[in-house]
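Project outcomes to date are best conveyed with an example. Our students and postdoctoral researchers have been running inverse folding experiments weekly, and each run begins with a structure described purely in tokens. The record below, which covers 335 residues, was selected by the lab manager from last quarter's runs and is presented without edits.
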């Protein structure tokens, strides 16, 4: 089975080239929801939706009721659209297989099967791919998020500078729904064709351009004690927006990358950027950190961050405020 891409599916739908059956599965709900929503917005005329749009939830239906609905015909117009949300709750969903060759041309059936995927060795997914669309929605790795942000904005006629993009990626993680919502806020407040800057991000999202994880990593890489402590004091005073568990995870990933530099067989900048999966624009901070922290110190820092991850969750740090934990942690990293 050749995997079909998110972009291919979207292009076909926008061109009104529909499959009779969409089985959307996988760990990333954003792509599943986006395809399902696009079908809902595109297939039916607004006047037909009251009669021909059927949305059900997996916990409320079984295979037989889904089949019965799919085999019925639209009351008006050319199509009926049947969307099964949370379909991972449907028992024995593979028993839909006979429907694949029986579904009328006037029905488009969409199965939203989140956080799980079918066993590709079995016949059902092979038949889905043969007669309809089988799409696996995979989680993006953290290092793919900046590129995703850039492409999302470009499709809507916006651009973003590298620092602003990294600020968003660092603070929003890989939750694409959350990232999309923040990008929509930005676009609402900025004219089309804007170049989004870190100032725009700060004004419209509340993420500080001076006191953020990106600036903390830079300060730590340079062993800039004053700047690192200024940022940590800001985090401690705004714990809700800067939970220590999130900061620890991001620092852990950062110092793990720095450690990889020491073991890189090819020390050229392009090779290291590829190894770390980072934009070459930000590479100098990693290289500076590798010069300032030995292998032994980096191993110590990584162990330290594991310890503060537990402390941030309340294990072994009773009655210690997050602000104090931050100060302890940064002191130990720098000394």
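After processing, the design step wrote out the following sequence:
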């Amino acid at each position: 089975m050749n995997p079909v891409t998110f972009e291919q599916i979207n292009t076909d739908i926008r061109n009104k080239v529909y499959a009779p059956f969409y089985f959307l599965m996988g760990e990333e709900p954003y792509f599943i929801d986006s395809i399902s929503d696009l079908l809902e917005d595109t297939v039916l005329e607004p006047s037909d939706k009251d009669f021909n749009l059927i949305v059900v939830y997996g916990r409320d239906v079984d295979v037989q009721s889904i089949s019965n609905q799919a085999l019925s015909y639209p009351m008006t117009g050319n199509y009926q659209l049947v969307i099964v949300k949370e379909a991972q709750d449907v028992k024995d969903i593979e028993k839909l297989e006979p429907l694949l060759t029986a579904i009328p041309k006037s029905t488009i059936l969409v199965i939203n099967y989140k956080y799980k995927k079918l066993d590709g060795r079995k016949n059902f997914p092979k038949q889905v791919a043969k007669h309809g669309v089988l799409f696996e929605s995979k989680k993006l790795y953290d290092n793919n998020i900046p590129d995703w942000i850039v492409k999302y904005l470009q499709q809507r006629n916006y651009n973003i500078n590298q620092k602003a993009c990294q600020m968003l990626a660092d603070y929003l993680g890989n939750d694409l729904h959350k990232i999309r919502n923040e990008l929509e806020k930005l676009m609402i407040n900025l004219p089309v064709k804007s170049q989004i800057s870190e100032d725009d991000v700060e004004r419209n999202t509340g993420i500080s351009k001076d006191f953020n994880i990106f600036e903390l990593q830079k300060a730590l890489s340079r062993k800039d004690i004053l700047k690192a402590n200024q940022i940590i004091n800001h985090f401690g005073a705004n714990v809700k927006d800067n939970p220590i568990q999130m900061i620890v995870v991001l620092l852990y990933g950062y110092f793990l990358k720095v450690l990889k530099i020491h073991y890189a067989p090819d020390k050229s900048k392009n090779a290291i950027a590829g190894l770390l999966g980072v934009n070459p624009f930000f590479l100098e901070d990693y290289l500076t950190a590798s010069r300032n922290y030995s292998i032994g110190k980096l191993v110590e820092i990584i162990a330290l961050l594991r310890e503060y991850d537990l402390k941030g969750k309340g294990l072994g740090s009773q009655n210690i405020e997050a602000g104090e934990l931050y100060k302890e942690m940064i002191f130990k990293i720098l000394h």
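The longest helix spans residues 244-263. The mean pLDDT is 92. The training component of this project remains on track.
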